[in-house]
Design a protein that fits this description.
5-stranded mixed β-sheet; binds magnesium ion; Helix Hairpins; 15 helices; 5-stranded antiparallel β-sheet; 4 domains; binds adenosine-5'-triphosphate; Beta-Lactamase; 12 strands; alpha+beta
Length: 451
């Protein structure tokens, strides 16, 4: 018996027989070498000639194989082999555990594996029936819990952490069960049910929450420490120094506005998360929106000597969305390009129409020619507080929440963000948003090409 589903057909029967033959071979593994040694010794001592010795050895081998086959056949007919029960009980056990969505292993007396379902191999890939659980699962905590459950007869819970092939946390619940007693005296047998529940998503979200609180506190503590430092200086040594006071007050204002921005971003993130499942539906013209973004960021572009190029299509490009949220998302992308890609001197905005997974899509790209982003950072850029270069982001007044906000805003709009970058040659952030087929915008944006 292996997987519950297999056992019902001829395939399951064949596998059971192979398992029984393998177990039989293990049981008689010393018989054949012993016979070979004895016969070889007799041949060398001249007691028996070679040909009769070979015939005797062949006869012993045949006898052993016939014995094993008889045992396998007897097992198929419902007799006990290796302390295991007949097919009917096995099928009931198999059918019961096959329907459980979590990994489940059934043990019989002595800790031998009676049955396991398909998912159980995620926990112990080398599982095999009629073999001790400890051969396949080398976790001392679980084995100890199995021993206790068998001894005490009660349910025992324990946790297990797996490092390979991927990090996973499991809760193992070991519960003794008794098969119902019937007219058959072999019924009423006690089994142990070992069920595993995957705790990985829970542990990950706990870890994320802890990281988030640690990061948010750290981001707030830095400007707060700087503010209280300047307050001490202004109350003490610089009390009468008018020039120093003006300078320090300027720094204090910048730090206070950084804290305000951080709190504002955190609140926006949680507001957007709360509305994550409500799809925004107001019509928003992306051409107008991007013009507004480009105009609004012109002063920053001027300060950094960057030209913003936007060659909009003549027709409006309308998507269903929340105008303020989309404005915020594109502002962050263009602001990032201006802040981190300033050395390229040019930022390009483009709108183009593409066939996508959900019908026609609009792709809005923001491209810069700055230093670009190393590939190892790309998958993590949209995580909260993640920065490719922490010092530079802080120096630019960044909180590291901008791209996390972009990601959440796009998720709410059923859109997605693509990031392409070649280090040394700049970065392109592309926002893809669906266009509802048949809406006026779908026809209007025909003819839009990349600028
Ligand atoms: N165009 C870009 N070129 C190079 N690096 C970039 C670019 N855009 C983003 N990054 C990197 O990604 C990081 C995360 O960006 P994100 O917008 O989330 O945060 P931020 O800009 O640091 O802070 P905030 O947006 O809250 O002001 C940045 O710190 C920067 O290291
Ligand atoms: Mg940003």
């Amino acid at each position: 018996m292996t997987f519950a589903q297999d056992d019902q057909g001829a395939w399951g029967q064949a596998r059971r027989q192979v398992a029984t033959i393998a177990a039989g071979l293990r049981r008689v593994r010393l018989v054949l070498p012993a016979a070979a040694i004895a016969l070889a010794t007799a041949v060398l001592a001249g007691e028996i000639r070679v040909v009769p010795a070979v015939i005797v050895f062949a006869a012993i081998t045949l006898g052993v194989l016939l014995d094993i086959r008889r045992a396998a056949a007897a097992r198929g007919a419902g007799a006990e082999v290796l302390g295991r029960r007949g097919d009917a009980d096995d099928l009931v056990v198999d059918a019961a555990i096959a329907g459980v969505p979590d990994p489940v292993i059934v043990l019989e007396r002595g800790g031998l594996v009676r049955a396991f379902n398909r998912r159980a191999v995620e926990v112990a890939p080398a599982l095999a029936t009629a073999r001790p659980l400890s051969f396949a699962l080398r976790h001392p905590g679980v084995l100890e819990a199995v021993r206790r459950a068998a001894e005490e007869g009660g349910t025992v819970r324990t946790e297990m952490f797996q490092r390979v092939p991927a990090e996973r946390w499991w809760e193992a619940v070991i519960a003794p069960v008794r098969l119902p007693a019937g007219p058959d005296p072999r019924n009423g047998e006690r089994l142990l049910l070992v069920a595993f529940h995957d705790l990985t998503p829970l542990r990950r979200s706990e870890q994320m929450r802890a990281d988030f609180i640690a990061n948010a506190s750290h981001e707030l503590r830095t400007p707060l420490a700087s503010l209280s430092g300047f307050i001490d200086t202004l109350q003490g040594p610089a009390r009468a120094d008018t020039a120093a006071r003006e300078k320090f007050l300027g720094i204090m204002r910048a730090q206070a506005s950084r804290m305000a921005r951080l709190i504002d971003d955190l609140l926006s993130l949680s507001r957007i998360e709360l509305k994550a499942h409500v799809r925004p539906e107001s019509p928003v013209d992306l051409v107008l929106l991007l013009r507004q973004v480009a105009d609004g960021l012109q002063p920053i572009a001027g300060e950094r000597g960057v030209a913003i190029a936007f060659d909009p299509p003549p027709e409006p490009v309308t998507v269903a969305g929340d105008r303020d949220e989309l404005l915020r998302a594109f502002e962050n992308l263009v602001e990032n390009a201006l802040k981190y890609g300033a050395s390229g001197g040019r930022v390009e905005l483009a709108i183009l129409r593409e066939p996508g997974l959900q019908g026609t899509e609009v792709a809005v790209s923001v491209r810069d020619y700055g230093p670009g982003i190393a590939p190892e950072h790309l998958p993590r850029l949209t995580e909260r507080f993640y920065r490719a270069d922490v010092a530079e982001s802080r120096a630019q007044g960044g909180t590291g929440l901008g791209l996390a906000l972009v990601k959440h805003i796009l998720q709410r709009h059923r859109g997605r963000l693509g990031i392409d970058s070649t280090p040394g040659a700049g970065a392109t952030f592309t926002v893809r948003l669906p266009i509802v087929t048949g809406s006026p915008s779908a026809t209007r944006i025909d003819g839009i090409s990349a600028s």
